[in-house]
Each structure stands twice: as structure tokens, then as C-alpha cells.
Design a protein that fits this description.
This protein is 81% helix and 0% strand.
Amino acid sequence: MFVIIGAIIVFVSVIGGFLLEKGNLHVLIQPAEIVIIGGAAIGGFIIASPPKILSLVIKKGILQIFKWKPPDKTFYLELLSLLYQLFSKARKEGVVALEADVENPSKSPLFNKYKKVISNHELVNFISDNLKVIVTANIPSHELDSLMDVEIETEHKEAMIPSLSIAKVADALPGLGIVAAVLGVVLTMGKIDQPPSVLGHSIGAALVGTFMGVLLCYGFVGPVSINLEHIARDSSVPFQVVKVAIVAFVGGSAPQIAVEFGRRAIPEKEKPSFKELEDTLNKLK
């Protein structure tokens, strides 16, 4: 919703300002310029992107902008509660007792209690895979920390691909606008024997190409890239929370202390207070 609102504000501000100065809106309507700039940008992006990148940009990029909901306090309370129950079960019954839960999280009563968490398939896989390591091997906490860091870094790099790809398209748009403008000037030179009014209109139409390229870069496509960068960063926070909590638990911390370590990795705006977490965990005991 905010993306659409922002795009409307950009469009209304630019076009509104132009009209306030008694500009002729008809001059800005240049389908040929749109075809040149848009077609070249899309074509260049396809040339630069293997099929995997194209899929990531569409599925985890453009579509995600409109349906993305960042993790909130309720989500993090669910995540910490799930980790607490998993740790408590492992402490009371032994880590082997977690095998059924982590082998098939979708059928685990513990995982299914927390709908917001289980809907995040990448996070659930991250939790279950790293608990499997604990179940099957006596791994020291520092080695597990390094192992989880590698996975988080890999996931984050992949999540950043849509942002970086779209940023490159944005960087190319001003140059493609110049291409459209130069082609417009070439056409104008063929009308050199025409009266000044005709030449002026033709030159104005050519300059619209530069205008469109710069506007698309800084007003629309560039901001989309920045939005996707924020989404990628927000998406990685729950993984950091899980990592900190699991490493603390493997290092010997009690379940409640381990999830408190995890709580400290949550950004301030979404972070539940110590009292909120304590009250939530007390209801689970």
C-alpha cells in the first residue's frame, strides 16, 4: 500500500509542478520514448540475468513488495515461545526427544501451535536443520555458531539479489534516457528545414527521453531497489534471533535464559519487553 501511495505522490508532484508552470502535458506523452527506454531496460536486464535471477526478482522481488509484512512483536513472541518449548523439551527429555518435531515440523504439535512462525518455511527449515545437528552430533556451541553464520550469510546474499539486480536497472535508466534523447535529436536534424515551432516541438519531445530516464531511475525503480534491500534485512532478523538462542542453549543456558539472549537480537521497535516475554513463557509452564 505504501509503495503505491509513494508512487502516486511522485507522479502527482512531478506532473503537477509541470502543469502549475503552464506546461503542455501533451508534450510529455511520447510513446516512442517509453518503448525505447522501457524495452531497452527490460532487454538489458534479461541479458544480464540467468533464469534463476529472473525468477528471484519476480517472486522475491516485485511481488514481495506488495505482499510483504515485516515481523512484528506478536511474531517474535511466537518465535521465542516455540524456541522455549523446544529447549524445555530437550532439557527434560533429552535432545533425542526433538527428533520427531524437527524431522517433520509441519506435523509437529509444537510447531503447529505457532501459525505465524510455521508459515515462514525458510525459518522453520533453519530451526529444524540446526536442531537436527544438535540431535545427531555433540557439536560445540562455537562451531554451531559458525555453521549458522554461514547459512544466514548465504540466505541473506540470495535475498539481496532482487535489490541489487533492480538497482543496476535503475542505474542504466538515465543512460537509456540519453539514448532516446539522442535518437530524438537525430530525427529533429531531419526536420532542419521546418519552421521554429516544429523544431521546438521535436527538440522538446527528444528531451522527454532524458526526463523519463532520470524520473524512472530516482523516482520509481531506485526506490523499489531500496525497499527490497530493507525487506532482505528485515527477513534476516528472525534467523539471527534463532541463532543466538540456539547457541546460548547449546552453550549451557537454561531455556528461559536462552530465549532472552534471542530477544536481545530483535530490533527495538518490534522487541517484546522482558516482562512481556516472561508473562508469555509463564503461561507455557
